[in-house]
Amino acid sequence: MKRSPRLGLKDRSQAKLDELFSELIRRRALARVGGCERCRTGKTDYKQLQCCHIFGRKRRLVRWDPDNALGMCPGCHMYLDSQPTEMVAFARQQLGEQGFLLLEARASQVGKPDIRGLMLYYGELLKQMEG
């Protein structure tokens, strides 16, 4: 049996931040609309939702940007991922034209996010949401 390679420190930190961010976005959706932010189907637990990115996760400067993510049911997430034109229209509706243009500008920049800083910040936000 072949063992999978161990994740490096950078990869583990990024994976942990992905988990924190995803939970934050899904909890936010539950607080905002009680479920999916697209179809508005009610959910009883944030674990029933998925974190859907407007601009894909490869766009590192907005990968963990709350404006770039919405909490959605699996059906809406899969649908919008396969329909980029509708994704953009939905994002414009959610963020407003100015908000979308600002997000688009951030998504087109090159740089490295502060993974440690974001982990601390989102960790604290989650504690506040839970307590």
Arithmetic mean of pLDDT: 93
- State the end-to-end distance: 44 Å
Q: How many H/I helical runs? A: 5
Indicate the radius of gyration in whole angstroms: 15 Å
Portion of residues in beta strands equals: 5-15%
Helix/sheet category? mainly alpha
Give the overall form. globular
Regions with little confidence, pLDDT below 50 for 5+ residues: none
Largest sheet: 2 strands, antiparallel
DSSP strand count: 2
Binned, the helix content reads 55-70%
Strand order of the largest sheet: 1-2
Order of helices and strands: HEHEHHH
Provide the descriptors you would attach to this structure in a database record.
two-stranded antiparallel ribbon; 60% helix; mainly alpha; 131 residues; globular
Q: What is the element layout, followed by pairings?
A:
Layout: H1 9-33, E1 50-53, H2 60-63, E2 69-72, H3 74-82, H4 84-107, H5 115-130
Antiparallel strand pairs: 1-2
Helix pairs in contact: 1-5
Notes on the structure:
By secondary structure, the chain is mostly helical. Helix content is 60%, strand content 6%. The protein has 5 helices and 2 strands. A two-stranded antiparallel sheet has the order 1-2. Helix 1 runs parallel beside helix 5 (115-130). The longest helix is centred in the N-terminal third of the chain and has 25 residues, at 9-33.
